[in-house]
Write a structure and sequence with these properties.
A hairpin with a 5-residue loop joins strand 1 and strand 2 (15-22). Helices cover 39% and strands 18% of the residues. By secondary structure, the chain is of the alpha+beta class. It has one domain (3-127): Nucleotidyltransferase, domain 5. The chain is globular.
């Protein structure tokens, strides 16, 4: 059993929201529920989130798009290189999250208990 965690953090790397997805689904499926109802100044992401509908959604909201692009993208987007450096905060969050063995090994049997462990681990990470 595999599970993907698609997470949204704030500018300090603290968890705001997350979505659990089956391991065989693409990461962009979880983006719409994550950004729904949240006022974003910018969205920083890696190549997995380089989708036209995400770029269009962020443009409509007036948010900056700071997503690394696939080499085959027809229309290259300009991204702020200095802002892109801050993407490491989400990577750092996932590294801290995976320090918890139950999350790294997906020891929970249900999605509900797995989500609860992620919330608990995020609370511990924020309290450090």
């Amino acid at each position: 059993m595999t599970t993907k965690i698609v997470a949204l953090t704030d500018a300090l790397g603290n968890l705001v929201r997350f979505e659990l997805l089956p391991g065989n689904r693409h990461d962009t499926i979880g983006v719409a529920p994550l950004i729904a109802g949240i006022d974003l100044g910018a969205l920083l992401g890696d190549k997995a989130f380089d989708a036209n509908w995400i770029v269009e959604e962020l443009d409509q909201r007036g948010a900056k798009v700071v997503i690394s692009q696939h080499p085959g993208r027809a229309q290259k987007l300009k991204i702020d290189a200095e802002m892109y450096k801050w993407r490491h905060l989400i990577e750092n969050f996932f590294c801290k999250l995976k320090e918890f063995k139950r999350i790294a090994m997906r020891a929970c049997k249900t999605d509900q208990s797995f989500a609860a462990m992620i919330y608990l681990a995020a609370a511990v990470i924020n309290s450090r």
